[in-house]
């Protein structure tokens, strides 16, 4: 991927990046729990919420920031994602929690779209491990 393509992706609306990141995280979590639990769909859905809820994502983001896990480039995406003005109401959570979860999803979307597969895998694995330790 050339610099022009990366710059184009970097300039996408952060909520667009979060939209992509939400799908990436959801698919990764679903694959993880399906292979781990071998359970019925309703049970899988209940377990998946532990990983993909806005509250869980916000808590995970706070820990990752505390650990200084993100690169400078990723921090720029996080800040844009956290500060983006959404015109939809956050379901079952306050606006701060929603913004933090959107920030984390924006980084996931950015890493996915820029084909930084190794870094994306590291982040997804880290998210799973953090939630598992709670």
Automatic annotation (TrEMBL):
Taxonomy, superkingdom: Bacteria
Enzyme class: hydrolase
Annotated ranges, domain RNase III: 3-133
SMART domains attached to this UniProt entry: RIBOc
Cofactor requirement: Mg(2+)
InterPro entries reported for this sequence: Mini3_fam, RNase_III_dom, RNase_III_sf
One Pfam family linked to the record: Ribonuclease_3
GO molecular function list: ribonuclease III activity; rRNA binding
Gene Ontology annotations of biological process type: rRNA processing
Gene Ontology CC: one annotated term: cytoplasm
Annotated compartments: Cytoplasm
Principal cellular location given in the protein's record: cytoplasm
Sorted UniProt keywords: Cytoplasm, Endonuclease, Hydrolase, Magnesium, Nuclease, Ribosome biogenesis, RNA-binding, rRNA processing, rRNA-binding
Enzyme Commission identifier(s): 3.1.26.-
Active site: 22
Protein task: Involved in correct processing of both the 5' and 3' ends of 23S rRNA precursor. Processes 30S rRNA precursor transcript even in absence of ribonuclease 3 (Rnc); Rnc processes 30S rRNA into smaller rRNA precursors.
Family the UniProt entry places it in: Belongs to the MrnC RNase family.
Subunit structure: Homodimer.
Entry-linked PANTHER family: MINI-RIBONUCLEASE 3 (PTHR34276)
Name of protein: Mini-ribonuclease 3
Protein source organism: Staphylococcus simiae CCM 7213 = CCUG 51256
Recorded name of the encoding gene: mrnC
